[in-house]
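Preliminary data (for renewal application), adenosine-5'-triphosphate complex.
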Amino acid sequence: MLCVDHLGLGRRGREIVDGVGFNIEAGWALQIHGSNGCGKTTLLRALAGMLPPAAGSVRWRGMNVHAQPERFRRERAYVGHSNGLSDDLSVLENLRFAALLGVNPGSSRDARMHERDVLETAGLWTLRHARVGSLSQGQRRRVALARVMLERKPLWLLDEPAEALDDAAQAWLADALDEHLQDGGIVVATTHLRLPTAVARTQHLQLQLQLERGGS
Ligand SMILES: Nc1ncnc2c1ncn2[C@@H]1O[C@H](COP(=O)(O)OP(=O)(O)OP(=O)(O)O)[C@@H](O)[C@H]1O
Ligand SMILES: [Mg+2]
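Predicted structure:
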């Protein structure tokens, strides 16, 4: 479903990633490893269609994601280092805005029940009216991940998803990842930490720093 072929990526004329290729099928996770600065975030942004490739291609269900960015965006959820939330809106407002853009919002009654369920399991229900700008880093991370769960998109692209999460939140994330994969979704995650999922169907990609590869 997600097919990456001979992908090359550069930043400001400098080659960061070269010749990366993999194919991920429904129900599988891909974990991207590598040291600081080796290009994990760069690769994830390219998979999300946010960074054009210098070479090669990224295809989702046969569609070139860089040729059809709007269509692809409806199918993929992305959480970056910064959580992409609006500080001036409440937790609930942030989530509802995102859910409106989702591919499969369901009926409004179903959506509200699902929303409450996700907020309760995330430990965010009592904070639902709080301004996101007033939350801690770990609480914001929970909101960003709850948003992904509510968007109900098949492809989750997560940059360091467990960053700032406490043990309870990591367990919550692990359950959500397992459920998503069992439902036939795909997860691509960069992580220095072990991805908190019990699912055995995980592929691994090791990136190397350009200097370690002998580049200039
Ligand atoms: N916006 C940018 N403009 C120019 N160069 C960038 C930019 N962002 C990252 N880089 C460079 O690209 C390289 C890869 O950065 P990237 O953020 O992808 O690494 P990473 O593997 O995600 O690191 P970390 O583990 O610290 O998150 C680094 O050498 C970095 O200096
Ligand atoms: Mg990074």
